[in-house]
Structure formats: C-alpha cells, structure tokens
Design a protein that fits this description.
There is one protein chain. The radius of gyration is 20 Å and the shape is globular. 28% of the residues lie in helices and 29% in strands. The protein is α+β, with helices and mostly antiparallel strands. 17% of the residues are buried.
Length: 184
C-alpha cells in the first residue's frame, strides 16, 4: 500500500500558513485572557505606525516568502521612469517640486504602499514605506494607480500630479527627516 505525500512546494506553503495561523491564534488568546496584552497590542497596531517592512523582512528571512519557489515576475514593467522636476523649494516638513502639468509620477525607491488618502497641507497623499522603515509621502496626487499594501519597485507609476507640482516628505516613526539625506 502506497502512502500519499505532498510535494515539497505544497508542504512548505502549508507550514507557512499554519505558522501564521498559530501566531494569530496565540495573539487572540492573549487578548482575550488579559486586558494588559489587549491594550498593548491595540496601542502598537492601531495607534502607532506599524513598520510593515520590518515584518516582511523577518518573514522572508525565516520563512522564505509566501511562495518562495514560484516566480511571479513573468511580466515586464512598462513604466520605469526617473523623477524629473524643474524647481525645488522647501514646503512645511518636506519639499515642493515643480513638474509639468499632469506629470506621471514614478516611485523613487522600492516599498510597500501603507497609506492612500488626504493629509493636511499635502492634499491627496500616497505613503510608501521602504525596507529600512522610512516613509516617503507623495503629495498632490491625482489618478492614483496603486492600491493599499502593494509592493512596488522603484520607477513604478503611482499616479499623476494634480497641478504642476508635487510634494515629497520623508519620515520614520512619526519623526520628519531631512530630505537631503534621501532625495537628490
């Protein structure tokens, strides 16, 4: 009598799935059993900025990605541009770049889209977190072409400028950073 065994790719995926489910169950039990754990988890997940790249890097390091043996890069990027601007000036916590009207905006660095929405003086914003945990805010964006939690490569098209300018802001852990350290 022959026993059925799963191929290595499927068993690796099942292991990863069970591991993530186990972590979720443990956190759920901790939240239900003790209010201190619940408050701590709530504070760090809902009230503070979550560093998605940190968790992604740990997951990829120890578990090798969700589908490590399957190559999803079968498509070629059509839009792979560099940011071109006419003039740069300081603007609140970042910079204002003068661009052509309805300029197609490329992503400056690889990262994960962690926010899409309005921010005070920056208008419609796309916030992208890179692997080091630095958030890049792209402001004054129309016709957004990305979705929340998209993992994007540098040069990818993210949207259009609403007018003839865009805003760039760099932050990490709710602290604004000097754009000179990242831009240019």
């Amino acid at each position: 009598m022959r026993c059925f065994t799963f191929p290595r790719k499927i068993s690796g995926f099942i292991f990863r799935l069970l591991f993530v489910a186990l972590i979720f169950i443990i956190l759920a039990i901790l939240c239900k059993s003790n209010l201190t754990y619940k408050d701590y988890i709530y504070e760090h997940i809902y009230e503070k900025n979550i560093n998605f790249s940190y968790f992604k890097n740990i997951y990829n390091k120890y578990l090798g990605g969700v589908f490590p043996s399957i190559n999803f890069n079968s498509t070629v990027s059509v839009f792979n541009e560099k940011l071109v601007y006419n003039e740069l000036s300081n603007y609140y916590d970042g910079i204002k770049l003068s661009v052509s009207d309805n300029y197609l905006i490329p992503l400056l660095d690889d990262g994960i889209v962690v926010y899409i929405g309005d921010k005070d003086v920056y208008g419609s914003v796309i916030l992208v977190e890179d692997d080091s945990g630095v958030d890049t805010w792209y402001g004054n964006i129309c016709n957004v072409s990305v979705n929340l939690y998209d993992n994007l490569e540098a040069g990818s098209y993210i949207g259009q400028s609403c007018d003839d300018y865009i805003y760039l802001v760099y932050s990490k852990g709710n602290v604004f950073l000097d754009y000179n350290d990242f831009f240019g």
